[in-house]
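Holo prediction. Input below; ligand is GMT.
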Amino acid sequence: MKIGITCYPTYGGSGVVATELGLELAQRGHDIHFISYAQPIRLRGPEPNIHYHEVEVSRYPLFDYPPYDLALATRMAEVAQLYDLDLLHVHYAIPHSVSAMLARQMLADGARKKRLPFVTTLHGTDITLVGLDRSYLPITRYSIEQSDGVTAISNYLRDRTQRVFDVKNKIEVIYNSVNCDVYAPNPKMAEEMRAEYAPDGQRVLVHLSNFRPVKRITDVIEIFDRVHKQFPSRLLLIGDGPDRSVAEWLAVQKGIHDDVLFLGKQDQIYDKLTIADIMLLPSELESFGLAALEAMACEVVPIATRAGGLPEVVDNGKTGYLAEVGDVETMSRYAIELLQDEKRLSQMRKAARAAAMERFCSTKIVKQYEDFYRRVLERSA
Ligand code: GMT
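Structure of the complex:
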């Protein structure tokens, strides 16, 4: 198949999922065309069957708000025509789904009457936060209903979209995935990383996010502070965003700043995961929690909240731990008990990786998308 993929190319789970899916599809012989305003960060150099088409957004002085969605729609239609795409797959509804809808219409009404069905994958905040804004809700609902196929990354997100948006079309759940060959324990890499980040044999906890309020970064610091009192340990904070300074301030207040390493945005995270024991993800809400899955694949045990889709990813007590949002005492207790019990820690690490491989490996999930695309193409023929 010839597939156009649009996503947010910067740091964020939806862009990562879209890019990894594109790479996996390309390896399986499909022709993949990424269409976005910048090259997706996880696109590692030239790859067979992968193409990238940049969307230029005009900065004309009249435009206080440059119309990216229109430039994207135009580029989608051009690329689809030029490379004879079979379908578009857009990740994150706003505004990608609306642009795809316009591109489909332009081509259908054009001289060559080309068909261009599009699939929308919902990732979370496009529904739970942004989509509920009154200025976006009606058009988001409309573009979802107009999609030739809709998927959501968890049952939680599917149910919430149906309930809150009251969309009429079927939403299929296809879980997020992880490349289990890249995200895997790696003793050689671990040695290098340990020398850099935990040279004195400290325990390593890790957190990965965009540091937005929904991630509750101060809870991460609170939990680490309690663990740090019990064990020599380090906290690796990967990512950046609006709550970084409040986290830095709290770490200084608690006198643990030297052991809290702010690594900023990183193109690669699997290397850092090789030395971590525990991933902390105390989010207010996660529609899926890709960070927890990436950790599990690397044999890092997630301690997360019982929020949104996280219980579909983490099996409490088997592949990680779940607690109520804001319950830093319970999450700290889980971390301390686990680090005190090497046997239990080792069992849980293995169980976490086994679950990642069994349920979420990209080689399995990519087949679900291929099957879904085929059904969409058949339906819209
Ligand atoms: O978490 C964010 O704010 C970023 C957002 C995104 O678009 O990257 O993440 C959402 O999509 C990820 C990939 O599907 C999911 O793993 C995250 O759980 C989801 N975030 C939320 O639901 C808050």
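The chain has two domains: 2-177+362-380, 187-359. That is the main takeaway for now.
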